[in-house]
Design brief:
Layout (H helix, E strand, L loop, with lengths): L4 E15 L3 E8 L3 E7 L6 H4 L8 E8 L6 E10 L2 H4 L2 H17 L7 H16 L4 H14 L5 E5 L11 E5 L4 E3 L11 E4 H12 L2 H4 L6 H19 L4 H18 L1
Parallel strand pairs: 3-5, 6-8
Antiparallel strand pairs: 1-2, 1-4, 2-3, 4-5, 7-8, 7-9
Helix pairs in contact: 3-4, 3-5, 3-9, 4-5, 5-6, 5-8, 6-8
Bound molecules: zinc ion (ZN).
Length: 262
């Protein structure tokens, strides 16, 4: 009854922390089982079994065993599938990859498999590793991630009067309501974010296009600014906080813009 079951699966490292003298507790997003928490015994000492594999956003094939579905997995070993060296060589890319895995950690529950989400991590980290960084990529990740994780905002019609989007040039995004309001149903004041029709169309495409085509989708400065404000507020509303990695990205951007203004 209580026999150990053995598994192997591809997995992204979401988070690691040291545990005791030599162990590490690692949270993965796995292809076969969704989010999974495990202990890598001796990981701080055993260069042979884990080398430097257990680092955030690495893609691994892990071997583990456990007694029950809800028990901590015992990570027995791993092969590195991709360490994403070009991301790690670039500070901004590293921060964005860290943000992607932190979002994944925040919006997923252990033991719930989601193929589309696993595939998104694979594709977006691949883009980030191989392409020149473009800001749009981050917002496409966010909007698509929210949809795949089951929290996608409603961008196809006004959430109050249900009129389909298209008749007006400007809408208001209301994070608490998870959607947009048209001009007639518009709210004013703090906590609402203007989205032009162009931005809504671009974000909708970002949710629906083939993943491979996304990196070629152009974004205007206006779309980037509007998406950033609205999606940041929406994610803050859903999680009740600003994610740590997002705060670091903002701090670095502030420092860089101060430097370029001197
Ligand atoms: Zn309306």
């Amino acid at each position: 009854m209580n026999a150990m079951m053995r598994y192997r699966t591809a997995a992204f490292v979401l988070r690691c922390m040291d545990y005791g003298e030599s162990d590490r507790i690692v949270t993965f997003y796995t292809e076969e089982l969704g989010k999974l928490k495990g202990i890598a015994k001796g990981a701080k000492r055993s260069k042979k079994r884990f080398a430097n594999a257990l680092e955030p956003f690495s893609c691994l094939r892990i071997f583990f065993s456990r007694h029950r579905q809800d028990s901590l997995a015992l990570i027995e070993g791993c092969d590195v599938l991709s360490h994403f060296p070009a991301i790690r060589a670039d500070l901004e890319k590293t921060l964005i990859a860290s943000y992607m895995v932190e979002l994944t950690d925040q919006f997923t529950m252990e033991g719930k498999k989601n193929d589309a989400l696993f595939q998104m991590l694979q594709v977006f980290l691949g883009f980030l590793n191989s392409e020149t960084l473009v800001e749009g990529l981050l917002h496409f990740f966010e909007i698509r991630f929210l949809k795949v994780a089951g929290y996608g905002p409603a961008l196809d019609r006004c959430i109050v009067c249900k009129t389909p989007v298209g008749g007006e040039s400007r809408y208001m995004f209301v994070p608490q309501e998870g959607g947009i309001r048209c001009g007639s149903c518009c709210m004013t004041g703090n906590g609402v974010f203007p989205l032009s029709l162009g931005t809504i169309r671009t974000l909708t495409l970002g949710q629906e296009l083939e993943l491979a085509q996304l990196k070629r989708l152009p974004l205007s400065e206006q779309t980037i600014a509007e998406s950033r404000a609205a999606l940041t507020a929406f994610i803050r509303h859903l999680t009740g906080k600003d994610l740590k990695s997002w705060q670091v990205i903002q701090q670095i951007r502030r420092i860089e813009s101060q430097r370029s203004n001197v």
